[in-house]
Write a structure and sequence with these properties.
Layout lengths: L2 E3 L9 H7 L8 E3 L7 H6 L3 H8 L1 H4 L5 H11 L10 E5 L2 E5 L9 H19 L2 E7 L3 H10 L5 E8 L5 H8 L6 E7 L2 H14 L7 E4 L6 H18 L5 E6 L4 H11 L4 E8 L4 H8 L23 H9 L4 H8 L11 H5 L5 E5 L2 H15 L5 H14 L5 E5 L7 H7 L21 E4 L2 H11 L1
Parallel strand pairs: 4-12, 5-6, 5-8, 6-7, 7-13, 9-10, 9-12, 10-11
Antiparallel strand pairs: 1-2, 3-4
The structure holds pyridoxal-5'-phosphate.
């Protein structure tokens, strides 16, 4: 299996190359050259998440790793989960909640980032090289990246966080890590400022040692998507006797939705994929009005979805809407966001087959949390609540829904104080966080200052 860019100029890349490279040279995103097919009977016969992952991951890695090497990595990748099979499932009538937050940072991002980090390390060991991870985070990516990489001595992580809307728990998950290869940089600026600094660093690369990689951990990294594809097949393994399932997915950068779409292309039977957003509604505007245009970011009670553009969306445009026409894709995204994207109406209509979308504001998010708590004594995190909205509405009509639960509610305690709901279970990941000392290195959004700091610690 080789990979190519959605914009057509970068192609015939093996798995290790795209793992270490992140974004393609032409600014596009890497895609597998074809969709490998999965044997559903084999998936049904498996008894654990890891056994299912062993059927999926090797389909993507064979250009760089032998089957045995990949299986070895998959068996040892996911660690420090607080659930015997990594994922929990709670069912309320026709709605199943897929709990993906039992990992060490209490959000679903552990699935993708632990897999990426394990493969990073494997490549670094075999080439005897080191790497710098440089990322910007508005919430859960940073802590999952730090946690996934901290045990690998060859990797140093520098994560920039804005003075923004992330919860204090989320910040402390990054600032209280005591490890000599982890640095949390607080930037006086917005998430967009942080991302611009990261982009500039990837362009200049003027702080790297010889034989040192610069690694991207944002959700465009294909290996993160692979890790996430696995749990859609796990949901099938657990719930296939309910009929063709609908998935409702709380969305920011569209990584999780694209993983669901990928699983579908690999043979997973799906009825509809519901794309659920908060007031940052670029994806909902696209699916309901054919309007994909960048607007300012609104702060919401589901901060990990507060984005202005959805970076993985280019993959869907390329594969689903444009039937892999990279020239058309490049023409659209080379000029985005300056030129908004609007598909011709016949192309846009294709969405009807597979997608629906919903937008849920803060008030309704809180209402859903309260309703579910009152009816079932179950506490949804605010991101999950955004996705539960459409599922609750439509499951009444006899459609079974799986709602992806992307974070543990204890990461966002403020909203529950306000609603008078007591969170009576704290995951191990979050215990003692407020007793620990924070170590944050504060900077203005100034490239040179930040690079000086990286140089001093590299
Ligand atoms: C990152 C994140 C999301 C959004 O995921 P995407 O893959 O970017 O769409 C949703 N919920 C939580 C809790 C997250 O951390």
């Amino acid at each position: 299996m080789l990979y190519h860019s959605t914009r057509g100029k970068d192609s015939d890349k093996d798995f290790a190359s795209i793992l270490m490279q992140g974004l393609a040279e032409d600014g596009g995103l890497f895609m597998p050259d074809y969709w490998p097919q999965v044997d559903l009977d084999e998936i049904k016969s498996k008894t654990s998440f890891v056994d299912i992952a062993k059927c999926i991951v090797p389909l993507f890695t064979s250009s760089s790793f032998s089957h045995d090497e990949t299986i070895g990595i998959v068996e040892s990748t996911w660690h420090d989960f607080e659930h015997q099979d990594l994922i929990g499932i709670k069912e309320f009538n026709s709605v199943a909640i897929l709990e993906l937050f039992h990992g060490p940072t209490a959000a679903f991002k552990d699935f993708g980032l632990q897999l990426a980090a394990a493969f990073f390390n494997q490549v670094l060991e075999s080439e005897n090289k080191t790497a710098i991870v440089l990322g910007a985070t508005s919430g859960d990516t940073g802590s999952a990246a730090i946690d996934a990489c901290r045990s690998y001595d060859r990797i140093k992580s520098f994560i920039m966080l804005p003075n923004g809307n992330m919860s204090e728990v989320q910040r402390r998950q990054m600032s209280t890590i005591k490890a000599s290869n982890v640095f949390a940089l607080r930037i006086n600026g917005t998430f967009d400022d942080c991302q611009d600094l990261v982009k500039l660093a990837f362009k200049k690369r003027d702080f790297l040692n010889t034989d040192q990689y610069l690694l991207a951990v944002n959700s465009i990294n294909w290996t993160r998507i692979i890790g996430q594809i696995c749990y859609y097949f796990y949901a099938y393994n657990q719930l296939h006797n309910k009929g063709n399932i609908n998935f409702s997915i709380p969305t920011g950068n569209f990584g999780n939705v694209f993983a669901c779409y990928s699983a579908h292309k690999m043979g997973l039977p799906i009825n509809k994929i519901s794309v659920a957003v908060n007031n940052n509604d670029i994806l909902h505007r696209f699916f309901s009005d054919n309007d994909y245009s960048k607007q300012i970011v609104h702060e919401t009670v589901s901060p990990s979805m507060d984005i202005s553009v959805a970076s993985n969306f280019e993959r869907l445009i390329y594969d689903f809407f444009l039937d892999r026409d990279s020239a058309k894709c490049a023409a659209m995204f080379d000029n985005f966001p300056a030129n908004p994207i609007e598909l011709n109406s016949k192309t846009w209509q294709k969405k009807e087959k597979l997608f629906s979308s919903s937008k849920v504001n803060d008030l309704d998010t809180k209402k859903i949390i309260q309703e579910i708590h009152q009816s079932y004594g179950y506490i949804l995190d605010p991101h999950t609540a955004v996705a539960a909205s459409e599922a609750l509405r439509k499951s009444d009509q006899g459609n079974p829904y799986v709602v992806l639960s992307t974070a543990h509610p204890a990461k966002f305690p403020k909203i529950y104080e306000e609603l008078g709901i007591e969170i009576n279970f704290l995951p191990a990941a979050l215990k003692g966080l407020f007793q620990k000392e924070e170590s944050l290195h504060t900077f203005d959004a100034d490239y040179n200052q930040i690079i000086n700091f990286i140089n001093l610690n590299n």
